[in-house]
Design goal:
It comes from Desulfobaculum bizertense DSM 18034. This protein has 9 helices and 12 strands. It is of the alpha+beta class and 253 residues long.
Length: 253
């Protein structure tokens, strides 16, 4: 069986087209960390040259619930072999879903969730698939002298200002840039950012009763960027990261 990485590399996926204007969040980031007004297109003058990104895959949520066989329902929550899940995961997430203010609250009302799992410093984490645009191979960012330590720099990815986040630093697990071979590109609240990760592990489809949204009782103050916990079959609790909180933290740093 192919690993997730081998599966992704062997496939060709569509990528998001380049845009010519900056979102309000992108303008705020440019003005905050590059010190240049982004009004009237001035921000474009300070962006790095577009990177030649090698896309590993594009992700998205299913546009509507699809029927599953009884066997598929029994296996909900078990990591699915990539060869069996590609038909459900290759369409672009609707813009209204990606930027909806109540996105995270709506996740709690869904019957089931799709999560993309990755590893970092020996730990497994997940991100809701609606927030993930694609996974690309690591590219070297342009450093920002005024940025906090967890911002590795920025890249111009298909016309979007894309800060790269040293995810391990943000989560309190130490520096993680050197061992990261991939970038998980996420988009929320008008800002595209890249989470530096070591590997893409698998993709989960889980029922709502497998998610614990009361993370404070398990993690306490360490729950700042974790909005939920997936109850894995081996009794592990796997963190579900809040891209919303990460974006907010970056813009308010």
């Amino acid at each position: 069986m192919k690993s997730p990485e081998e599966y992704f590399i062997d496939r060709d996926f569509p990528v998001e087209p380049q845009t010519e204007t900056l979102s309000d969040s992108e303008k705020a980031f440019v003005e905050k960390f590059l010190g240049v007004s982004a009004e009237n297109g001035q921000g474009d003058l300070v962006l790095p040259r577009p990177v030649q990104a090698e896309s590993v895959t594009s992700f998205a949520a299913q546009p509507q619930e699809q029927e599953h066989s009884a066997g598929a329902e029994k296996s909900a929550g078990v990591p699915t072999a990539p060869e069996k899940c590609d038909e459900n995961l290759e369409q672009a997430a609707p813009a209204e879903t990606v930027d909806a203010d109540d996105f995270e609250e709506k996740l709690k009302e869904e019957n089931s969730l799709q999560l993309v799992a990755f590893t970092l410093n020996g730990q497994e984490y997940t991100v809701p698939i609606e927030a993930v645009q694609e996974v690309i191979k690591y590219v070297t960012p342009t450093k920002l002298p005024s940025a906090p330590a967890y911002v590795a720099g920025i890249v111009n990815l298909r016309g979007h200002v894309t800060p790269l986040i040293t995810t391990g630093s943000l989560l309190g697990g130490g520096e993680d840039g050197d061992g990261c071979r991939f970038i998980m590109v996420c988009r929320r609240k008008g800002l595209q950012l890249g989470l530096l990760i070591e590997t893409v592990k698998t993709m989960y489809r889980v029922e709502q009763n497998r998610i614990d949204w009361h993370v404070e009782s398990h993690l306490g103050s360490d729950a700042e960027y974790v909005m939920g916990l997936l109850k894995a079959d081996d009794q592990r609790l796997v963190g579900i990261l809040s891209v919303d909180r990460i974006v907010q933290h970056v813009l308010m740093a």
